[in-house]
Specification:
This protein has 5 helices and 5 strands, in the order H-H-H-H-H-E-E-E-E-E. The protein is of the alpha+beta class.
Length: about 130
């Protein structure tokens, strides 16, 4: 009988620890792991995002504002790129690009695994 009581007590303690951790996202990657790894997320943005940077920029700021800035591309990825998993199938990817008209710029992108969608969320040039 004592071993059954210990088992119930231990199960209760585990539940008290695990449930709050799931709620705060601590175990998100264990419960809902990403489909891609970091290198794959970066590669997708470099291949499917950077060559079409003007289109993504228009989508981000709007057609009118984008035309006021002029054409960005062609853009070439340079330097070190990094990706971080944000949970729930969302990635944030950051890396520098070089353009003929703007020079070197830092870009930040999001990649949604669920929607298979890339978005340019930040474009900073010195």
């Amino acid at each position: 009988m004592r071993s059954k009581a210990k088992w119930c007590l231990l199960s209760g303690l585990v539940a008290l620890v695990v449930v709050p951790l799931l709620g705060c996202g601590f175990l998100e990657e264990l419960v809902n792991p990403p489909t891609l790894n970091r290198q794959q997320a970066v590669a997708l943005v470099i291949v499917a995002g950077v060559p079409y940077i003007d289109d993504y920029f228009k989508e981000t700021v709007g057609e009118e504002e984008a035309s006021a800035y002029g054409k960005i591309g062609p853009a070439t990825p340079v330097g070190t790129w990094d990706a971080s998993y944000q949970g729930k199938g969302e990635w944030e990817i950051q890396g520098p690009v070089t353009t003929n008209s703007w020079g070197e710029c830092l870009t930040t992108w999001t990649l949604s695994e669920a929607e298979s969608k890339i978005r340019l969320i930040e474009f900073n040039c010195d």
